[in-house]
Amino acid sequence: MFQTFDDLSDPSCGAPHAALLRAELARRGLDGFLIPRADAHQGEYVPPHDCRLQWLTGFTGSAGVAAVLGEDAAIFVDGRYTIQVREQVDMDVFPARHLINEPVTDWLGSKLKPGQKLGIDAMLHTVREVRRLKEVCEEAGAELVTLGDNPLDSVWEDRPEPPLGEVALYPVSLAGREASDKIAEIQSALKDKKADACVLTQPDSIAWLFNIRGSDVSHTPLPLSFATVPSDGKPALYIDGRKLSNSVRDALSDLTDLGEPDGFVSGLKTLGKAGARVLIDPALAGIGIADAITGAGGTLVEAQDPVLLPKAIKNATELKGAREAHIRDAVAYVNFLCWFDEEAPKGELDEIGAAEKLEEFRRETGVLKDISFDTISGAGPNGAICHYRVSRSSNLNIPLGKPFLIDSGAQYEDGTTDITRTLAVGEVSPEMKKHFTLVLKGHIAVSTAKFPEGTTGAQIDTLARIDLWKAGLDFDHGTGHGVGAYLGVHEGPQRIAKTGTVPLKPGMILSNEPGYYPAGEYGIRLENLEIVTEARDLPGGERPMLGFETITLVPMDLRLVDVSLLTQAERDWLNSYHERVRAEIGPLVGAKQRIWLEQATKAL
């Protein structure tokens, strides 16, 4: 199994670990310290070696920060984790705050006193974050102290070793472009920005640029590393040499100068001493990176990581791979749904059993490299926890009469998948059908959207919510995230969300996943992946328009649909989608599953 169900969180760790940290801070003459859920790469995917927030508080979510002062402490999480944080963290030690509604900077502004010193790890806080932190400290008469090491590491006695996942070359037959061509594109962009070099901190940017994949973090083929790319000449790749076989080392040596990670800061200082203008992404680069460059005499050019947009716009080979991966994944998923409909009504199936069986069907493809994240298998009230991770202690039997939410994905060499389905188990209430159908209407609105070039994800996001809003309902997460090409299941800069300010472009892959989550009761979410395409067949149209191509091909559960709430156009979309699923997936499954699929995709 790629997924484990061990209990990773222990709320009782909060008090003793906070005491250890406070003692170390006092020894260093610090009055406070910030502990983000981040490593030096500022990515979403963090190895156990760098899970400092989890060690300190017990919180296992993918976003958050804790603040520890002499007498006060708090943990800050966003709307996805408001339920989870209270289950995993001792609220007496780390009271929970909403990361958006009450940012950590606001909290610090009310707590810091004149003359106090607030410490941060220079590699764990971005340039943009540190600017705001400095403002808050100055307003309070306090001092922000950037540290070259982390006080928490000094008291973390059983800290895991850094990962040493083997690096593999990603073939051009799947990547669609030579690494040398990608490097030339980035170098051209640097010249346009009048930058002499750029710094890359995101492992997925580095993996895409050099056509490599790794295994340093769970479920995502990332090689943890840093890189600098000059506007002319060879890039430098800072990666632990123990991850490289001789053949991989030889291939990379033709493209880049290889160095160990502990030489990264020295490389930055060398750029600074040469007076280089160095592009960094202030939202991704730690302040320690910026300080190393400017402290040695270099100049910063602040701009978005130049790899993000080219990586997000998939080429024809990557899109072909994504489509093929989704067909393969749909076959496994239909096998699972057929099995689920037999087993769940018996009343003995639990969340872990469902997650294990779905992974088993994906393994039967023979080409599964990993799952793309821990399957969210949420029965009853656990379904209302947006990013719920089932463990042996939280595991529930899947009850009759409530929706069951399962959000999962797969990593195949030719593509990354991510799909959520909400399934009826037994007879569900009219209210549940209403909520499901309102979510479905939002999903259809996004899928069928036509929009002019330059439209952002924030503008599309409203389409997913409007029918929920009319009913006085909403959901506290974005409608969609970008998805990589055998890379991260969450990829920027594209997103469909209130914060989605990047224009959507043909070739981008995004999720479409509105939801609704009555706390303590159940969860509903429907997710397909969509490719942004040029819209066609718009008679009378005056402007170039874009739209979406749905590549997830798995039935929606018709037993949860209140047909009276759908317009004729929405019924037509659902019938057409199911007809496509039946036509493309039906011939690829067994006779038993084909019979099930015919029933599951019948026209409304």
From TrEMBL:
Residue ranges of domain Creatinase N-terminal in the record: 21-146
InterPro entries: Creatin/AminoP/Spt16_N, Creatinase/aminopeptidase-like, Creatinase_N, Pept_M24, Pept_M24B, Peptidase_M24_C, X-Pro_aminopeptidase_P
Chain ranges of the Peptidase M24 domain: 322-534
Occurrences of domain Peptidase M24 C-terminal (ranges): 544-604
GO MF term list: aminopeptidase activity
UniProt keyword annotations, A-Z: Aminopeptidase, Hydrolase, Metal-binding, Protease
Family per record: Belongs to the peptidase M24B family.
Protein name from the UniProt record: Aminopeptidase P family protein
Source species of the chain: Roseibium sediminicola
